[in-house]
Structure formats: C-alpha cells, structure tokens
Amino acid sequence: MTVRRLDPILVDRIAAGEVVERPASVVKELVENALDAGASRIEVALEAGGRRLIRIADDGAGMSEADLDLAVERHATSKIPDGDLTRIDTLGFRGEALPSIGAVADLFIQTRRAGAPQGAALRVVGGEKRGVVPAAWPAGTQVEVRDLFFATPARLKFLKTERAEAQAAADVVRRLAMANPHVRFVFQGEGVTSFDHLAADGDAGQQLKRRLAQVMGRDFDANSLVVEAAREGVRLTGRAGLPTFHRANAQAQFVFVNGRPVRDKLLAGAIRGAYADFLPGDRHPALALFVELDPREVDVNVHPAKAEVRFRDPGLVRGLIVGALKETLAGGGHRATTTGGDRLASLLSRPPPNPARDWDWRASPNAPQAYPPPPPSGFGEAPQAGFVPAPPQADARATMREDAAAIAHPLGAARAQIHETYILAQTTDGLVLVDQHAAHERLVYEKLKRQRETTGVERQALLIPQVVELDEADVDRLVAAAPALLDLGLSLERFGPGAVVVHETPALVRGNVERLVRDLAETMAETESEAALSRALDHRLATIACHYSVRAGRRMTPDEMNALLRQMEATPGSGTCNHGRPTYVELKLGDLERLFSRK
C-alpha cells in the first residue's frame, strides 16, 4: 500500500482520542485553562452527564480576537513562551485540548479581555472552524461543548451511565479545587450533588484547611494531622488522616505535584510504606499531599492526559514522603478518630425491634406470651454474650483509689476491667474504653522496633539448638539474610544440606520456633529487595507482638491498667493496633447525654 497524508480533520479526531476520553476529560482540560488564565471564580454545569452539554465559565484574563482564532489550532498555546519543555509551570500546555474537543463536538467559545471594547465568539463543529465574530460578553471566558462525540459516535458506547460520567467530572473539579483554595468553584449536574466551594481566606495553611474541610468533610479535618517537610529543594505539605480514619479503597487519597492532580505509582507506594505499620493491607488512609519542586526536576509530559509524572530523583521524593508521614503520625501520639464515640452512641440508641413494641405488658404473668419479653431498652439488637444474664464480670477494684491527677491525663484513670478484656477509664469530660490486647500489642511492637533500630531485639539462647529442615533455596535466603535476622533476635546458620540450626530466638518468643522460621522463609521468598526484607522483618515483629502481648481474658490490677494507659499516652501510634483496629473508643459527656436523652 502507498503512503499518504491523513486528512487534517481525521488527524484531529485521532488526537482527540488521546485527550478527550470522556466528559470528565473535557472538564479537566477546560478548568485547567481557566486556572491558567488567573480565574478567581469557575462555574461548571453539565447536562446528561456531559454528553449533551458541558458549560464552563470563568472570570479570568480572557482572549483577544486574534488569540481566540489561533487557540483552536493544534499545538497553539500561550503557556510555553520560551519553548522550554523542561520548565513547565502551567497546567494546560500542549495546545491540543480545544482543537481536539472541537473535532468531536460542537464547541462554542465567548471571551473578552479586561478593558477590551467588545468580546469575541467562535464556533467549531466536528473539526470545521467558523469565523470569529464580535460578541457582547463580560471579562472572562465561557466555553460550551454540546453533543460530545457526535462526530465519532463509536466512542459513545464506551461511556458509562450519565450519573457515573457526572460523578467523574465532579471528582475532577473537586481535585482541582483542593489545589486552588483561593478560587471559588461552582458545580452543577444532573444526578450528582451540586456544590459551591467558596474561596478560602487567610494564609496558605488556613486556606488549605478550609478547602479540605469543604471537599473531604469536617470529619477529615478533625481526624487529620498537618504535614510539612522539605528536603533538597523538594517541599511537602498537606494533611494526613489518622491511621484509624481509614477507608476500604484509595479514593480518599489526593496527591498533587506543583498544583497538578496526579495518580502516580511511586507516590502511592510511598504512602503505603509510611502507613504499613498502622494499617492492614486491605485498608487505605485518607490524605491530601502537595509536592512542590523545581519544574526542571519533574517531567509532566509523559502522559497524554498529564495524569502521571516522572521525577529526576524519585528516591528523594519517596524518601521525603515516607519520612514526613511517619514523623507526622508519630507526632500524633496516641490519638484515635473522634468518630468512634459517635458510632457507639448511634449503635446503642437505635430503637428496639418490632417484637418489643408488640409485647403486651398488661398480660397476666401466668398467661401465655405471644412474644418474648423485650430486650433492655436502648439496645436495638438481640442480647449479645456480654449482656446475657450472668454473674457480674466487671472488676471495680480500680475505683478504690481516687486520683484527680490521673483523671486529668488524656486517657484518664482506670475505673474497671470489663469481661477481663476491656479497660474502662474516666476522663475529665467523658470516658474511654480500651481494648487491652490491642493496646498492649502496639506497645510491644513499638518496643521491639526501637530495640531493632538501636541495639537489636533482645535474644535468648535455646537450651538445645533446634534444627529446621527447609528447601535449599529457602536455606540460601535465610543464611544470606542472617545479619539482618540477628537484629530481629533470630540467630541461625546453615546445618548441612536443606536445613538450618537456630541458636537464639527473640526474648519474647515462647512458641513454635520451627513455625517462626518457616513463616519467615516464605515471606522472604516473595520479597527480594532489601527494603522488602525490612518490611518483612517488621511484619514478623508485628506478629511476635500480637502473639506475646496481654491477651483478652487476663485479669489486670488497677496499677497495671493505669500503667498501660500511661504507656499508651507516651507511645506514638498507640491509637491503633498493628492490624489497623482502634485500641480505644472515647465517649464525651455530650455523647452520654444524647445516649440517655438528656440532651
């Protein structure tokens, strides 16, 4: 076949396939143009999920007639004035958005520069550009995109429902709103919740705090910590959610690089690494992080939609994120989420089930009952094991000592041990319920980590060294990692073909040594790098801490309970156990008053 040059309109439609994937892609490109134009107010409106209409209006700089005529040509842009692709400090810079949109839809633009005597308008339909005409329009720009993909109808069958497309567009606007708290964003669409995020005032930190509360909710504001760090020209700011404020997916993770929302595997991996000690593998933290660095140190031109970036020094950025998040979480001390008490109060205040309402209290005690007696008032579920009639199991010996100083501590003073599993403590403005095993598990884990980082985990010699038979490949991996395993408290060496001999184990281990070695060998088979081995060792430390902590069912003395509370207050991350579960729940006096209808 002979080589021929493609028709210009066909070229534009092929290019549109890279830029205009769905209505949310159009919204992203046009809102980014409005931000680059210096807009302080941006309004977005959708019809039929964006397929019928996308309208975006701003009060930015606007365009002259000549600029408007050139703006819909391919690779025409005002955002790379010196042609230097290594220093890009704007959002939209490719010059492909407007011509690509015009190639697959009906595009109509009205604009006017501030101070210009009149505005201008231009229409592009299916790649065919009409002439620029005068228009009466205030300062700024409005872009209307109608009948998206009418020129390429095959693309319509790949779109999702109107509601799903509108939600995707709203998510795009929210992300851009988070990165620009000084700009007002208004969004309206069918099938989704409209919002109007007013421009935040104050300094940069206050603006970000208010905008994140608008977008992510007040619960996030109350359950997040300020992140601020810098290293070698890279600056990291934002807010990180407490470990107990986790989610089932990563949709509540927002990362920005030089103001650009990105979804980057390197950054996502850094976040997972920072929270590895606090969350199970199937839970994800909520956070918003902003990375700022010299534009020459990051390439934003590696993806058609500019959703991915490439750093010149990825190790520096990853290390900064991991270190800053770990330091921030450690600085949060024993804090847990503030929503635990609300959930508990909500659970306990649910109305009783229908059978309770049908029970006839006027019936004779000797008469047959159509329904069983009602459960205790205030509990909406069938009696659980803890509420089945039985001899009292709450140990109230802690109440024998009144200590006002202890009550003033954040976690208060122990008052009782319930079911030999939970510690009930009184605070100055409420009460705290502590899971004794989960709390002590975190304390032991943090102690083991500190030992490993300083002198190594304390070891004890086995009276009789134990031989463990393994595959030769597992033996090779264990022997190669012997120095690192020694820091974990495990001393071993090769013992002929297909076996190792264990001489010392961690001092806290009182269990099956063979199982410990085999589990470690299996973990190391899946993790080859040094960093992965370090994570595997931390995982083993967490397992040791879980197995050899104070167990549920152990009766504790008042002094032991108070000592546990004080250690929790002094230990970073003690608000969550090694598996991501909260170690305590706090009920304020207000929660108690609502529970008993006193408020």
Question: Can you offer a commentary on this structure?
Answer:
- Among the domains are: 8-197, 2-Layer Sandwich (Heat Shock Protein 90), CATH 3.30.565.10; 204-331, Ribosomal Protein S5, domain 2, CATH 3.30.230; 459-507 and 509-547, Ribosomal Protein S8, Chain: A, domain 1.
- Helices cover 35% and strands 22% of the residues.
- It has 19 helices and 25 strands.
- Helix 1 (8-19) packs across helix 4 (97-104), helix 13 crosses helix 17 (530-547) and helix 16 (513-526) packs antiparallel against helix 17 (530-547).
Draw up the topology in text.
Layout: H1 8-19, H2 23-36, E1 41-47, E2 53-58, H3 65-71, H4 97-104, E3 106-112, E4 119-125, E5 128-129, E6 133-135, E7 140-146, H5 162-179, E8 184-188, E9 195-197, H6 204-216, H7 218-222, E10 224-231, E11 234-241, E12 246-247, E13 253-257, E14 260-262, H8 265-274, E15 284-285, E16 287-292, E17 298-299, E18 310-311, H9 314-331, H10 340-348, H11 354-358, H12 404-407, E19 413-418, E20 422-427, E21 430-435, H13 436-453, E22 459-469, H14 472-480, H15 482-487, E23 491-494, E24 499-506, H16 513-526, H17 530-547, H18 558-570, E25 584-588, H19 589-595
Parallel strand pairs: 1-8, 13-16
Antiparallel strand pairs: 1-2, 2-7, 3-4, 3-7, 4-5, 4-6, 8-9, 10-11, 11-16, 12-15, 13-14, 17-18, 19-20, 20-21, 21-25, 22-24, 23-24
Helix pairs in contact: 1-4, 2-5, 5-6, 8-9, 10-19, 13-17, 13-18, 14-16, 16-17
